[in-house]
Amino acid sequence: MYFILLLLSLGHGVLLYDGIDMPSLGFGTWNVPPSQAENSVFTALEAGYRHFDCAAKYQNEKQVGKALSRYRKSYGLSREDLWITSKFPTNLEHPEEVMPQLEETLKDLQVEYLDLYLIHWPFVRTEDGPKEYNPERIARIWEQFEIAQDRGYTRYIGVSNFTPKKLQKLIQSARHQVAVNQVELHPFLSQRRLRTFCERHKIAITAYSPLGSPGRPNSIDGEEKLLEHQLVTGIAEEHSCSPAQVLIQWSLKNGLSCIPKSINPKRIAQNFLSTSCELSAHNIFKLNRLNKNHRYLTGEHYVVEGKTVDHIWDLMGWDDDDEKEL
Ligand code: A2P
User: Fold this and answer.
1) Above 80 in pLDDT, residue 3?
2) How far is the centre of ligand 1, averaged over its atoms, from the C-alpha of 261 (Å)?
3) Burial call 35-62: b when 16+ CB within 10 Å, e when fewer
4) Residue 143 has pLDDT above 50, yes or no
5) Whether pLDDT at 9 is above 90
6) Nearest protein CA to atom 9 of ligand 1, as residue
7) What are 257-313's pLDDT values in tens digits?
8) Under a CB-based contact definition with an 8 Å cutoff, are residues 292 and 180 in contact?
9) 85-99, 210-224, 238-252, 276-290 — which is least confidently predicted?
10) Terminal-to-terminal C-alpha distance of the chain
11) Could you give the percent of the chain with pLDDT greater than 90?
12) Which atom of ligand 1 is closest in space to residue 264's alpha carbon?
């Protein structure tokens, strides 16, 4: 049984720039309440997950760390069998805060190194509110990330919620390769332009909210739910899978890593078994056509006075010359 789970978890990977595989299906820990995080992560490990997506901002890394440590001790799992991602939080503004914060995350997660450390957002939001995007600050933070990688604190470094424009800016001064960009991505938001850019620059993509984030705290009454879209439910019926499995498999078949979250043991196991839900090429094509550039997570939290969410995603003043430069 253990061997089969290992094959399921390690057999499907997303290629990073250096030819190493990142396990494509990960367990998302955003919105997992601290009181349920240890059990949920332990259940996910039992279900076969080996890739865990964490962040200091989620305020549950201590509990995640307890589950990882308990499982490893119980089943003799070595550190190399796991893929652990964490993120540098947006409430910290200064580059000199990177190393202490990373050390705290390592301590909380009870590991000696991360597999991947990401800049959580290209923005800062302190007690005084959100601050204007500052590429210089990102470049200085990135330098600290590079030092952390050189020191072996993390195997890879990357970003989250970066647009092609912001990635381009970062790449200009970066000494080390951006390994991954983690963004919201699902059939309603297929991020074509970003994917083309990332492919060209050998940046792998992790899709967050692959199920359309139905349980997020600020979900809007009456919003269109991806999991309930009739094409998704129809394909699920046709393939004898669940709608969630269809969406996860859509991500994987598109060459993405994805990190569905659940605190429900049955759904945790069901999501992990998505790889057995084979979708026909025709159905993948039909799902691809659902795109309507719809974000469930708009980033409004980071909008500064006088600006809009379109500024967050660089949708203002985008013209063909920008496109050519990328
Ligand atoms: P729960 O934690 O109660 O299972 P996303 O990863 O896109 O943010 O979606 C996470 C949300 O989707 C959570 O609210 C989670 O609820 C729910 N969810 C996770 N797996 C499934 C599933 N297999 N079927 C239906 N809902 C699911």
Assistant:
1) no
2) 6
3) eebbebbbbbbbbbbbbbbbbbbbebbe
4) yes
5) no
6) 213
7) 999 999 999 999 999 999 999 999 999 999 999 999 999 999 999 999 999 999 999
8) no
9) 210-224
10) 47
11) 89
12) 4
pLDDT of residue 318: 53
Residue 113 CA, ligand 1 centroid: distance in Å: 29
Nearest CA to ligand 1 atom 25: 244
In this predicted structure, the answer to whether residue 71 has a pLDDT above a threshold of 90 is: yes
C-alpha angle 309-143-147 in degrees, rounded to nearest 5: 135
Which of 171, 118, 180, 122 minimizes the C-alpha distance to 145? 118
Nearest atom (ligand 1) to Cα of 263: 2
Atom of ligand 1 nearest to the CA of 267: 23
What is the residue type of 15?
Answer: L
- Its pTM stands at 0.94
Give the whole-angstrom CA distance, residue 30 versus residue 72.
22
pLDDT in tens, 178-205: 999 999 999 999 999 999 999 999 999 9
Reference 12, options 2, 1, 22, 20; nearest CA is: 22
User: Taking CB atoms and a 6 Å cutoff, what residues make up the pocket around ligand 1?
Assistant: 28, 209-215, 227, 242, 244, 260-264, 267, 270-271
58 is catalytic: yes
Strands 83-88 and 114-119: parallel
The tokens for 306 are 């006088």
The one-letter amino acid code at 64 reads: V
The DSSP string of 199-254 is HHTT-EEEEESTT--TT-TTPPTTPPPGGG-HHHHHHHHHHT--HHHHHHHHHHHT
DSSP annotation of 158: E
Give the count of alpha carbons within 13 A of 317, CB side only.
6
Residue from 228, 264, 268 whose mutation best tests the ligand 1 pocket (most atoms within 8 A of CB): 264
Model confidence at 249: pLDDT above 90 = yes
Hey, what are 9's tokens?
A: 């978890």
